[in-house]
Design a protein that fits this description.
Elements lengths: L13 H8 L10 E4 L4 E3 L13 E4 L2 H6 L3 E2 L12 H15 L6 H8 L3 H12 L3 H19 L4 H7 L5 H12 L3 H20 L1
Parallel strand pairs: 2-4
Antiparallel strand pairs: 1-2, 1-3
Amino acid sequence: MLNEEVNVVNPLPNEYWKAIIDCDAAYDDHFLYGVITTGIFCRPSCKSRVPNKENVKIFKNALMALEEDFRPCKRCKPEGLSLPTEEWVQQIAEWIDTHYSEPLTLNKLADISHDSPYHLQRSFKRVKGISPTEYIQRLRLEKATRLLETSELPITEIGFAAGFSSTPYFMTLFKKKMGNTPSGYRNAYLKTQALEREENEE
C-alpha cells in the first residue's frame, strides 16, 4: 500500500543523491533507493522521474527494502526482482481508491507506478477488465451516488467532492452511466425512501 509518510531519518549522502539524479549505473551494486510516497524501490540508474530528496530512503539490498514493505520497480527491476502484474495493478487500484478526488491522468498514474502509460493501460485492463480511466470514473460515480443519497450538498459540490473537474462533465457522465441526472436520481431515491417508511409504519 502506498503511504504518505515523509522520511525524517536516514540522511541521504550527497554522493548517492547525485547518483540518483544522474541515473549512474556505476552505483547499482552499491545501494538501492526507495521512494516513501510511492512505496517503490529502484536502482540508482532507473530512468523514472527523480523523486523529491526528502522522500528518498537508502537500502543496502532488495531484502531490506522488501522487509520495509517497499516493492520493486517495474521499470528497472532491482536485483532482478519484478512484482507480479496482478499485485502491481491491485496496488495501483488501491492508490486510486485513496486519491480518486485528486486530478488523475494516465501519465500521472504511470509516473507514480514507474512504468509507461501504454504498459499500465494494457496491464490494468487485462487484470481489471476496464481501463484506469474507466476505473476512476466508476469510483467517482459511486462516491457521488453515495453523497446524493446521504447528504444535502448541492450537485456542484458533490461533483467536486467526488473528483470531477467540472459540473457539466459530472452531470453528463452521471446521466450516461446511471440513466438519470444527479438531481433526478436524488429525488427518485428520496421518494423511494419515503414510500418505504410509509409502508413500514402501516
